[in-house]
Write a structure and sequence with these properties.
This protein has 275 residues and is α/β, with parallel strands linked by helices. The chain has a single domain (41-272), classed as Vaccinia Virus protein VP39 (Rossmann fold, 3-Layer(aba) Sandwich). Helix content is 35%, strand content 24%. The protein has nine helices and eleven strands. The strands form two sheets. The chain has a seven-stranded mixed beta sheet with strand order 6-5-4-7-8-11-10, with helices on both faces. Bound molecules: zinc ion.
């Protein structure tokens, strides 16, 4: 039996099956996670992440991402004291290079060596090749610890969030965004949803469980945001022409509500380390 990373309970039930693998749900706290017993998750993830590398490099100068990056950097600015900024799972460094450009002292950790090498060699970034636990980062030393679409890939998010909390200075900010299981998209698509993939996304959060993980590590949640609604499992399923327009109109109220109800398919948490 697999132990729940959120509460330590070892009894769980089948939540759903996909790609021949299982998602389990803890009977005590309802946290949903992959059954990692008979599958080599590490090598599977390294393979697909290497495939995704060109996509990450493409983010470096895409206008949509630049706008998003600028908005985030503005939100992080009030936390700047020593100027130390860490990105967990920084991939090829497209965001981290903007962090550096904004005058922060940038640090990245990235376990996929080829991605990390791109950031180090092509962008001149300060990246540790490996995981956070082996990076040897000092306690109480960072203003901001940031992660984008990373925590869902972890089999033990509690370890990583606890280490993020350790290295933050008192008053520093932890930010993480991830897939939201308690979303309209999950309600509409269920297991057909592309991001519902037990081979890749080992931990599936809701706003509630993401909050508990932060609080368990001594962080205080100050804000949560959510966005994104999908009606179609793949791009090929999307309607064309007039139907597409009707579809967008049907989607608008959900997109609007998602920001308030936290039922968008992406959720982000902002949590501070108490002084
Ligand atoms: Zn549990």
């Amino acid at each position: 039996m697999q132990v729940c990373d959120m509460c330590g309970e070892d009894s769980n039930e089948l939540f759903a099956e996909k790609h021949g693998l299982e998602y389990l749900r803890c009977v005590k706290c309802s946290f949903v996670f992959s059954n990692t017993t008979d599958f080599d998750f590490t090598s599977f993830n390294e393979e697909i992440i290497e495939d995704l590398q060109s996509l990450h490099v493409g983010k470096l100068n895409s206008p949509r991402h630049l706008k998003q990056y600028r908005q985030l950097l503005k939100e992080f600015e009030p936390y700047r004291q020593s100027g130390r900024f860490l990105e967990i799972g920084c991939s090829t460094g497209s965001f981290l290079s903007k962090v550096r450009d904004a005058g922060w002292q940038e640090y990245g950790v990235e376990p996929v060596a080829s991605s990390a090498r791109y950031g180090i060699d092509q962008l001149g970034l300060n990246i540790h090749v490996g995981v956070l636990e082996t990076a040897g980062l000092e306690s109480d030393s960072f203003d901001v610890v940031y992660s984008n679409a990373v925590v869902e890939h972890l089999s033990s998010p509690s370890e990583v969030i606890a280490d993020a909390s350790r290295i933050l200075r008192p008053g520093g900010l932890f930010y993480a965004d991830t897939v939201n299981l308690d979303s309209y998209t999950w309600r509409f698509l269920g297991a057909r949803w592309k991001l519902f993939d037990p081979r890749m996304h080992l931990s599936l959060f809701t706003p509630e469980t993401l909050r508990v993980f932060c609080e368990k590590s001594g962080l205080e949640v100050i804000k949560m945001t959510s966005h994104g609604v999908r009606f179609h499992a793949t791009r090929e399923d999307k309607p064309q022409g007039v139907n597409r327009l009707l579809d967008e109109m049907r989607k608008a109220p959900y997109s609007w509500a998602a920001r308030r109800t936290l039922k968008g398919d992406n959720i982000a948490v902002y949590a501070v380390k108490p002084r």
